[in-house]
Batch of 3 targets.
Target 1
Amino acid sequence: MFCNQCEESSKGLACTVAGVCGKKPRVAALQDVLLHVVKDLSIYADAARKAGTSDAEVNYFTDEALFATGTNVNFDPQRLQGLINRGIQLIDRLQAQTIQSGANLAGATATYQSNAELPDLIQLGEDLGHVTNGAADVDIRSLQQVVVYGIKGVAAYAHHARLLGQEDEQIYEYIHRALAALADKDLELNEWLDLVLECGKVNLRVMELLDTANTTAFGHPTPTSVPLGHRAGRCILISGHDLQDLFRLLEQTEGKGIYVYTHGEMLPAHGYPELKKFKHFYGHYGTAWQNQKKEFAQFPGAILVTTNCIQQPQSSYADNIFTTGPVAWPGVEHVTNDDFGPVIARALALPGYESDKDRGQVMVGFAHQAVLGVADQIIEAVKKGDIRHFLLVGGCDGSRSGRNYYTELVEKTPADTVVLTLACGKFRFFDKQLGDIGGIPRLLDVGQCNDAYSAIQIAVALAQAFQCGVNDLPLSMILSWYEQKAVSILLTLLYLGIKDIRLGPTLPAFISPGVLEVLVKTYGLKPITTPEQDLADILG
Ligand code: SF4
Ligand code: SF4
C-alpha cells in the first residue's frame, strides 16, 4: 500500500505497511481501485460534458466515492466493493454515450470486470497502485497529489451541501476535468499549479454552498453557551459534520427521555436556532476525533458517527456505536434512510447518566452573521487600539504531541488580541477563559472546518471597513491540518492570495521540495516554530 494523504502518514512520508489510522492494506488497495474508477469515470464525464451532457447520477457518485476514500471515513471492504461496482456500471453507461459522441477518450487506463469478487479487486488495487503513479516528475506528482487530496475535501463538502439541496454544476465540472487531467501526460508544471489554485476557488464556492445549505435549513448560528457536563438520563452521542443527521436524530428522540450530546466537529451545531430549539439537545461531551477510543468507552449511551473521523471501535463500546452516511467500519451497524431506530433502541437499553453533573460551559455560534452583527463595535475597538491583533488559530486536531503548540500559543496571546477559531483544532483550548475586550469575547468559535467560509467573510468585511486588503489587516493565520478537507481550505486561502500562513504541526508529506519552494516564495507559507517565537514575529 501507499498512502500519504494525511498529516499522520508514517514517518512523515507515507503509510506503506498499514495505516497509522488503522487502514489495512486490503482497504488501501480497494480505495486505490475506487480512485482509478473515479478517475476513469471522470474522463468519460468530462468528455460527455464537453459534448453537452451532464449526468446527475455520475455527479453524485463522484462525490460519494471520493468522500469514501478520505481519511477515517470508510474502512469496510464490502461497502468499498459496492462503490467500485457501481462506478464500473456508470463507466460502461458513459462509455457507450461518449464513444458515440466521438470524444477524445485517451488515458482511461484500467479494464474493469463487472461485479468482481473482493480478492480480484484487492489484487487489481495492488497492481494499479496510487492514482498518481504515472507521473515521473516529482514536482508534477506532488501537485497531482495536492489536486487529488484537495478534491477529496471539496467532494466531502459538496456531499453535505447536496444532501441539503445545494449544488452547483461547476463543482462537478472541475472535479471531472481535474481528475481526467491525471491521464494527460503532456500537462506541464504550470498547468498543474493552475489546477491546484482552481481547486481552492472551487472549494470556496462549495463552502459557500454548504454555508447556504446549513443556514437555510437551520438558521444562522447565534452565540450560545454549551454545557460540558451532563443530565441524569439516557443519552446519545453524535459526532461528525452532518447537521441533517443531527436534526433527524433530534426529531426521532423527542419525548423519549433521551438527551443528545455532541462530540468533536458536531459542537458548533449548538449555535443553530433550528437545532437548539430541541430541549433534549443538551450539551457537548469530550474533545476531538483522536480521543474517541478513550472518550467513547466512558460514554454510558449509544454513539452515532456521521461522516468522517471514525477510529477502530474498542470492544468496550463496539455494541454501542453506529455509523451512517459515508462512514463505515466492518462489523459496525450502518444506519440508513435516516432511520435512527436502532440507535435509539440501544440508548434505551443502556444505563445513561445516573445524576446531573456540571462541568462548566463553552461559547459557540460566532459565525459570519453573528460577528458582522457587532462589526461596528469590533472596528471601533481596533481604531481605539483596544484590539491590537486578530489571530485565526484553526484547523484540525490529531495525535501528534507537537499540537500542544496551539494550546500554548492561545494561552500566551496578550489581552489586547482576539482569537478566532474553527474546526477540531479548537479542542486544544476551547474551554480556556480568555475574557473579553469591551464585551467582545477574546475567543470566538466560528464553527466547523467548512466555516472557514465564515472566517473569510469576516476578514473580507474587516478589510472593506478599513479600506485595505486582507493581507494588510492586523490578522494572522496559524493553522493546523490533518486530513483532506484541511488541504482544500488551505488551497482556498492560497487562491485568495492570503500570505504568511503558518502551518503545522508538520508540513504535508506530499509537498515536494520544489513545490514547497514555490509556496514559500509566492505565499510566504511557513511552518510553525514555537509559540513564543511566532507570537513575537506576529506582534512585533
Ligand atoms: S490516511 Fe493517513 S494514516 Fe491513514 S493510511 Fe493514509 S497517510 Fe496513513
Ligand atoms: S477539522 Fe480537520 S480533522 Fe476535523 S473534520 Fe475538519 S478536516 Fe477533519
Note: DSSP finds 18 helices and 16 strands in the chain.
Target 2
Amino acid sequence: MGETANGPPTERRIVSRRTFLRLGCGILLSGAAASVLAPVYATRIEPRWLEVTRQDILLPDLPEALDGFTIVQLSDFHLGPHVSAEDVRRSVRITNALEADLVVLTGDFVYRSARYSTPCARELTSLQSRYGIYAVLGNHDVWTAPDEVAASLTEAGIVVLRNERQSLEVGGTRLWLLGI
Ligand SMILES: [Fe+2]
C-alpha cells in the first residue's frame, strides 16, 4: 500500500509483503544469492515497507457497543541504525488517517540501545485515537532497557501495560486490555 499526502493509504499495492517473501525465499534458496540479498532486504527494504492489512475479528458474544470498534496495532519499529524517526512518523501519519477507536503498540521500539527510546516515543506522541494509546514492551526492549523504554513511552502519554490490565468504558460496556 502506498501513502497519500493527506488521506488514507491507497490501494497501489503491486505485491504484498507475504508474496514478496515467498518469492524471495524461492530465490534465496536457489544459491549463494542468500548471503548478499538477505542483509539488503533486512536493512534496506523491509524496515521501510509499510503495509496496512485489515482483519475482521468475529466474536459471537461481542456486545453491540463494540460492533465495528476499530483497533490499529503497530509493532516492531526497531528505531535505530536502519529505521529513522521519519519512518516512525510515516507510520503515525498512516495510523492517524485510519481514525481508529484504539491504538495498540506491541513492542520492539528500539534497536539495541536505550538512546533510541526517547526519539521513538517523541514521534509516537502524535498518534491519535478515541480511546487512547496503549503499549506493551517487546523482546528487544526487554533485552535492551525495559525501564527506560517504558519511561519514555509513559512520558509521551502512552499507557504501558507491564503484566497489567486496563478497562475501557465503550458505549456502556467494558473492554479489557491485558498487557503481557
Ligand atoms: Fe521485532
Note: The mean pLDDT is 88.
Target 3
Amino acid sequence: MDDLSPRLQKLNSKPLADGKYVLYWMQQSQRAEENPALEYAVRRANKLDLPVVVVFGLAPKYPEANLRHYMFMLQGLREVRRRLSQRKILFVVQHGEPPETALRLGRFASSIVCDCGYLRHQRRWREQVAKEAACLAEQVECDAIVPMDAASTKLETSARAFRPKVMRFYPIYLDDLNPARSVRNSMDLQVESLDLDDEEAVLGPLDLDCSVKPVPLFTGGTSTAKRRLADFLRTRLAGYAEHRNQPQTDYVSHMSPYLHFGQIAPMYVARKIQGSGAGSSIDRDSYLDELIVQRELSVNFVCFNKDYDKFSSLPEWARATLAKHKSDRRPKVYNKIQLENAQTHDPYWNAAMNEMKITGYMHNHMRMYWGKQILAWSKTPEVAYKTALELNNKYFLDGRDPSSYANIGWIFGLHDRPWPEREIFGSVRSMTIGGLMRKTDPEAYVDKVERLTT
Ligand SMILES: Cc1cc2nc3c(=O)[nH]c(=O)nc-3n(C[C@H](O)[C@H](O)[C@H](O)COP(=O)(O)OP(=O)(O)OC[C@H]3O[C@@H](n4cnc5c(N)ncnc54)[C@H](O)[C@@H]3O)c2cc1C
C-alpha cells in the first residue's frame, strides 16, 4: 500500500515548525527498508524541501533488557546506519531516555514522525513527545500488518473470534512501499552521535545485566533476517503445517527475534510466504495464521488490557478455576532458581530450559510444555505466572514482546476455553509428559538441544 494514511495517526494538533529537518524518531521499527514511518518522514521532508534525520534513543536501563538483547539490537542498528547513509540520511544514536532524546533533536525539527510501540512504556513515551514537542508529532504503524484499529477496537477473547477480522483485511496492507529518494542530504548536519562500532562506548555506560550473554546462534539485522527467511522458504516451508509442532525438527522460521526488534517488516514476511512457490497452500495458510492472527491477537491483548503483564489480566473463569485448585497437592514443587538452573526431574523440560538459556530461543511446542509444567510445579498459580514471565523475558531474544504477555497468559487460560477439570489446572488446558512422548520425539529433541548448546 503506497497510501500511508491508514497507518497514520496525529499525536498532537501542533503546527509544522520552522525547522531544519523532519525528524524520524526510530524506536520500535529498527530497519531502513519497508519502514512506513521512515518513508512517511522522507515524503513529508521532500514536500518541505528539507532533509530527514533519524534518531534512536539508547535507554540506559530499558525494562528487563540485558546484554543479550542489547548486542542483538546493536548489530541491527549498525546495519540501519549503513543503509540510511546510502540514502544520504543521517542516523543519530544517543544515550538517554528515548522520549528525551527525541525531544532534544525535536527542538530543531519541522515535525516529528515516530513508529508505533504497543507496550505501556512505549505508549507513554510517545504521549510525552506529543505533549512536550513544540511541533506536529505523528505516528505511523509499522509493526502490525493490519493497523490495530482497523482490525478491532475491543479486547478480543480468542483467535477464533479475531481471525475473520484480520484475515478479511490483511491483503490490502501487504504492498511493498516505494522508497522515495531524499531530495536533501542530511549527512553533513553536525549532530553528536555515538560511534556504533565502538562497543565499549555504546554499551559501557549502560546499566546492563551482563550475566545473560549474547548468543552466537542469532545475529541481529535486516539482511540476516532476510537470509534466514529465504532459507526457510527454500527448505522448510514445505512441511510447516505438518511438522511445526515437532520440536525435534526445525520446521520453523526463527523470525520472532527479528520481528520483535522491528528488524524485518511483518508485511515483507507475509508477502514472501504468500508468493512462495514452495510448500502447499496449507503450509502457507498455517504460517500466515501464526504470523498474522496469533501475533496480532497478542498486540490486541496488550493494547486493550491495561493489566497485560499481571495475573489479573487472565479471564475470570481461568482465575476462578485456578483458585479452586490452588491447594491441590503438587507432585513436585520447584522454586525459580531450581527451574532457572534446569534442575527438575524431567529431562525434556530441562532441555527446553537449556535451549532457552543458551540459544535465546525455544521451539513453540516446548514453550507450551515448559510453561504448563511451571504451572504444575509452582506453589501457586500466581508464583508460576511471575516465574514464567520473568524467565521468558530474561532469556528469549523475542521476550518483552506483546507475544510474550499473550502467550504466558495462554498457559493460564488466556485466549483459550475451559477443558475437562483436573487437579491443579482446574479447567485450564494441561499438557503432560505422556502427551509429549505420544505426540513428539522428546529424546530426539534432547539430542538436538545438546548439539545446539555444545
Ligand atoms: C509460553 C510461551 C511463551 C512465548 N513467548 C514468546 C515471546 O516471548 N515472544 C514471541 O515473539 N513469541 C512467544 N511465544 C510464541 C511463539 O512460541 C513464538 O513466536 C515462536 O516460537 C517463534 O518462533 P518462530 O519465529 O520460529 O516461529 P514460526 O513458527 O516460524 O512462526 C512465524 C511467526 O509467527 C508468529 N507466531 C508464531 N506462534 C505465535 C504465537 N503463539 N503467538 C504469537 N505469535 C506467534 C511469530 O511472530 C513467529 O515469528 C511464546 C509461546 C509460548 C507458548
Note: DSSP finds 20 helices and six strands in the chain.
